[in-house]
Amino acid sequence: MTKTRKSIKEATILFAGDSGDGSQTIGAQMTETSAFAGNDVSTFPDFPAEIRAPAGSLAGVSGFQLRFSSDDIHTPGDACDVLVAMNPAALRVHIDSLKSNGILIVNVDNFTQRNLKLAGYENNPLEDGSLDRLQIFVVELTRMTREALKDTDLNAREMDLCKNFFALGMVFWLYSRSMDYTLRFIERKFSKKPKFIEANTLVLKAGYHYCDMTEQFATSYEVQPAKFPPGTYRNITGNSATAMGLVAAAHKSGLQLIYGSYPITPASDILHELARYRNYGVKTMQMEDEIAAMGVVVGAGFAGALGVTGSSGPGLALKSEAINLAVMTELPMVICNVQRAGPSTGMPTKTEQSDLLQMLYGRNGDSPLPVLAAASPADCFETAYECCRIAVKYMTPVIMLSDLYIAFGAEPWRVPRAEELAAIDVQFHSAESGTEFHPYERNDETLARPWAIPGTPGLEHRIGGLEKENCTGQVSYDPENHDLMTRLRWEKVERVANEAPPTNIHGDASGRLLVLGWGGTFGAIRSAVDQKRQDGASVSHVHLRYLNPFPLDLSKILARFDAVLIPELNLGQLRHEIRARYLVDAIGYNRIAGYPFEVSALVEKIDAVLGDG
Amino acid sequence: MQTNASGDNGRFGQEPTNTQKLTKKEFETPTDVRWCPGCGDYSILAQTQRILPDLGVPREKFVFVSGIGCSSRFPYYMNTYGFHSIHGRAPTIAAGVKAANPDLSVWVITGDGDALSIGGNHFIHLLRRNLDINVILFNNRIYGLTKGQYSPTSEHGKVTKSSPMGVIEHPINPISLALASSATFVARGLDRDPPHLQAIIRAAYEHKGTSFIEVYQNCNVFNDGAHSRFTEKDSKADNVVILEHGKPLIFGKDNDKGICLKGTNTEVVSLTDGKWKEEDLLVHDQYSVDRSHAYFLSRMSDSPDLPQPFGVFRSVDYPCYEYQLEEQVRAAKEQYGAGNLESLLASGDTWVVE
C-alpha cells in the first residue's frame, strides 16, 4: 500500500502505563530525539508517589507528556494528539486529554478482564463504541515484542520489560524520527547487560517496521525544525539546570561547592546530579535530616565555601530555624525550594507554587532574605547562578524557588559560553594592621558585612544567633541597636533590587491588562497572552524572577495598566504581596489541583477580565 | 596532603605562622565571663585554655561551635573563631566547617539538653560519620539556662520545677549512646579534676576522628552536688575508677578494691579478703575495636552501687569523613579529569544551531 507523509507544525504525545512500564524512559527518548531533530520541546512527566502501585491499578499510572514543534513553544500542551496507553488504567486516566479524532495506540494484550475491572471499566471500551471519535490502533504489543525476541535467550519476564521500546519504535515511525539517538542510548544504558542492548534494539526496530509494514498505519507525520537563535543547545530538566547553575557559580567564583541535603521529592535529583560532580570539586553531604542539611550549609558558609541546600516545602519548614541563623549571622548560602503540593506532606509528586509566603515570612522575627524564582526548566540554570551571585555579594542566604513541574520538565536550552556568565567576585577579608576587625562593619553600597573565614590570622571573632551590636558584632540587648540592626538587615535585602535588570514587558508597555506571573506558570501564561495578542487584545505579560525584593520599576509598570491579573497555583500569594505593597487591586486566577495551568483556561480568564472592562 | 587513612596530615598548622608558643592568656577574650559564680563551666574553660597553647596550632585555626544552653556561651570566652549557634545543631554546623576546610581544628561545646535532647539526632550522626571534631559535653543533669527543668540525664524520680512529683523517664547514658553510635573516641572527665581533664582534652585533640568527652559538671544553682560522690574528699576514692590502658581497674582509698567482669556484669571485689588478686581484675583496653569492653564500663554508671570510670573508654582508628570526601574528589578528578567551567558547559548531548 502507499503511505503518505504529512507535514505538521507540532504534536503532543502522551505515553502512559504502569509505573514499571517504562513510559518515563521512552518519553525522555522521544524528547531528546525531537530536540536533536531541531524541534522546540516541552515535557510534563506525571507519575504517582507509589514506586510500584499494584499493576493495572489507576493509582499506578505513570505518564509522560511531550510536545514538539517547529515554533517556539512554552508548554507541554493542554490536549494530546497521540495517547499511547499500555493498559486500561492508563487509558481511563488520560483519555480525556486526547483530542477528538486523536490517535490512540493501545496494547490490547493488557486489556484483560482483570485489568479492565481494575481500571473500573464494566465493558471493554475498545469494543463498546465509546471511543469512536478517535483513530484507534489496537496493537498486540506484548505478543509482538515476544515474537521479536523469540530467538534470544531472554525469559518471558525479561522480554516484557522491552515492550516500551516497541511503542517508541511505533511513535518514531509515526513522526518520521531517526532511531540513532535512542540506539546510542540503549548501548550506553545497557553496557553492563549486553543482552538487553540486542533485545531493546530488536524491539525498537520491530515497532518501527511494524508501522511501516502494516496497513493499519497509512499516514506518518513530519515536524520541521524550529528556528532557534544560533548557539550550542542541549535538552535539560529544571533540576539538572539547577545543579549545573550551582556548579557554574562555584567555578566562576572560585568557591568550593558544598551541597547538604536530605532526600525529598521533587528535589532529590539535584542531590543525585551534584553527587556525580565530584570531579568538579563538589562535595555533597547527605545529612541525617533537613535541619542538619541546613546546618552544614551554614557551617560551610562560615568557613568560606559556597553552601547550598535543596528541599521542598516540608523540608523548608524544618530548615527555617537554621536559615534564620544565617540571616542573623549574615552568611552567604543558597536554599533551593522545589515546590510541591501542600500543606504538610500534601501531594509529593504534584506541582504547586504555594510556598511563596512561607519563604518570604516563615521565620521568627523580622527576617528578610532575597527570594528568586525560576520560570522554566532552562531558566533554573540562570536563576540558581544569580542566587549564588547575590548571596556572596550581599552576604545573605538566598532562596531559589522552583517547582515540580519545571524541575522534572525538560526543554532545549541554549548553553551559555563561560564568558557570558556574570562575574562573581569573592573577597575574603584579611587583617589590616593597626585597625581592629569589626565583623559587622558594612560595605557602603551593598551593606554586606565582610566574609572573614576561620584560618585567617588576626580576624578571630565570634558570631551567633544573638542580636549583634552594630559594627562590632558583640552581643547586644540594647533597644536602639536592635531597632537599627533590624532595619539594616531589611535595607540590605532591599538593595538587592539594584541587581534586577529592567523588567521585561512582553507586549505593549501599557494597556488594558497586565498578566503578572512568577515561577513555573511562565509557559502557560506566555502562551495564553500570545494567543490573545494575536487576536488583537490589549494584554501584556510580566514574569517576575525577583520576588523579594521586587524590581524597582514594578510599581510604575503596574500603574500603566487598567487591570492586573495574577494567575497562580495557590490561593493568591503573590497577589497578596502586590496588593499590600503597591495598593493595586489585582485580580487573581487561582487553581490548586496539583497540575500546571491549561492555556485554554487562562485564555478564558483573560477574556472574562477584558470583557468585564 | 593526607598521609594515611585516618586523615593524619601532620595536623593543623604544621607551619605555624608564629613560632612563639602561645599562652593561656592569648586564648582569653576581654568579654566578661558570665556563668554563675562557682559554676563548673569555669574549670572546663580554664583547662581548655591551658591545653590549647600546648598543641602547636595557630590560634586562627581553632573554631569553637556551640548550641544553646549555659555551656554554649563558651565560644564567647575563647579568643579563636567561634559560632554560638542554635539549640542542638552545633554538630551540623561544625560538620560544615570541617568539610569545607579540613585544616581547621573544630570543637563542639554542648550540654546534656543540647546534645542529647534537642540535638540527639545530630549527636549520633556526628559520631558515626567520624569527622575529626572534638565534642565536649558538659553534663550537669539539669536545664540551667531555662532555670531548673529536668534534662535527659536527670535521674529517675528527680524533683525539679518541671517534675514536682519526680522524673518518670529513664536517663540517657551518654557514654553508652556514644559507643552505640560507633564513636571512635569516648572519654569522661570531671570539672573538679583539672589535671585529668586536661589530659583527656589533649588525648581528644590527638585522636583523629570524632572525639567525645563527657564532663561531669556541677551546676551549683539548680543541681548542686549532682556529682559530689566523685568529687568530695571523703567519697571520691571509693567512687572513682581511673581508666588506664593495659592496667587493671583498681580503686579505693588504699587501692584495695577492683572491678571484675562476671558474665556480662561488672562487680566490685575486695583485694584484701584473700579471694581476689590483681590478675583476676578487668584490664582496661581502650584500643579494643570491639565495643563490648567499653560498653560494659559505660553501664557502670547505671548502678548507684558501683564506682564510675573516668578516662578514655575507647580510642580506635577509623577513616575520617572529611578525608574520605576529599579522597573521592581526588579520585573522581583522576578518573574523569578535573572539571572546569568550559567542560561543564560542554557536557551532555549538545547540538549546534548555525
Can you characterise this structure?
The complex is a heterodimer of chains A (613) and B (354). With 613 residues, chain A is of the alpha/beta class. In chain A, the strands form five sheets. In chain A, strands 11-10-12-13-15-14-20 form a seven-stranded mixed β-sheet, with helices on both faces. In chain A, helix 14 (379-394) links the parallel strand 14 and strand 15 (397-403). In chain A, 37% of the residues lie in helices and 22% in strands. The longest helix of chain A has 20 residues, at 194-213. In chain A, helix 1 crosses helix 7 (180-189) and helix 17 (522-534) packs across helix 20 (599-612). Chain A has three domains: 4-223, Pyruvate-ferredoxin oxidoreductase, PFOR, domain III (Pyruvate-ferredoxin Oxidoreductase, domain 3); 234-418, Thiamin diphosphate (ThDP)-binding fold, Pyr/PP domains (Rossmann fold); 511-612, Rossmann fold (3-Layer(aba) Sandwich). Chain B is an alpha/beta fold. Chain B has two domains: 24-231 and 320-345, Thiamin diphosphate (ThDP)-binding fold, Pyr/PP domains (Rossmann fold); 242-310, no CATH class. Helix content of chain B is 28%, strand content 18%. Chain B contains eleven helices and twelve strands. Chain B has an eight-stranded mixed β-sheet, with helices on both faces. In chain B, helix 6 (194-206) links the parallel strand 5 and strand 6 (211-216). In chain B, helix 1 crosses helix 6. Chain B is globular and about 95 Å long. Chain B starts with 40 loop residues before the first helix and ends with a strand. Chains A and B meet through helix 1, strand 9, helix 9, helix 11 and helix 12 of A and strand 1, strand 2, helix 2, helix 4 and helix 10 of B.
